[in-house]
Amino acid sequence: MLISELSLSSPDWIELVNVTSVPVDLEDWYVEWFGTDGGGNTQTGILTIPAFTLPANSWVVLYDEVGGTGDPPDVDVSGTAIQYHENIWWVAESSSAALYDASDNPHDFVRWGGTTYDPPSPLTWADTPGGPAGAPIHLGRPQPRCGQSGHKHGCGFLRGHVNTGSG
User: Fold this and answer.
1) Is residue 145 situated within a structural domain?
2) Where would a tag sit more exposed on the chain, N or C end, judged by fewer CB atoms within 10 A?
């Protein structure tokens, strides 16, 4: 399971992809996010995935609701989206997200902007994300746990684009 894309617009969302050849039961998996609100205050949250199985080689989008009610998440009938009734405080300048399984094992981590959050142990960085001010915003991904049993994807540094909603 990987974090494949995210958006910092309204709604904020994060896309997860099953890169394996078998379905993955995502019930009680979760995304822990770190961000900053409009006043510069650190905000954190957890998006716990309800009963949901992601087919092999498929994706699902988890998205927020600004000013949400806090009600339990809703799985879209298409099976490609889950709406959370809460706000995710992501900003282009400095935020991060980590994907954990139901046993609290980290599977993926991304950060962008000026954040200094490190990936959760035992994940490590294969490279340092970032770039000059004004450069396009890219995700930095930690090196996957190469060589572990059941590990299905490569061991190199991966990058993806962050959609800031500005173009």
Assistant:
1) yes
2) C
Tally the domains of the chain: 1
pTM of the model: 0.78
Burial class (CB in 10 A: 0-12, 13-18, 19+), 156: exposed
**What is the tens place of the pLDDT at every residue in 121-152?**
877 765 554 444 444 444 555 544 433 333 33
The CATH number of whichever domain residue 84 belongs to comes to: 2.60.40.1260
Count of CB atoms situated within 10 Å of the CB of 22: 9
Q: Look at residue 63 and tell me if it is in a domain.
A: yes
Note the pLDDT of residue 125: 63
142 is in which domain, residue-wise? 2-152
- As a whole number of Å, the CA-based R_g of the chain is 15
Tell me whether residue 102 is in a domain.
yes
Strands annotated E in 69-141: 74-75, 81-83, 94-100, 106-113, 124-125
For residue 62, the cross-strand partners are: 14, 82
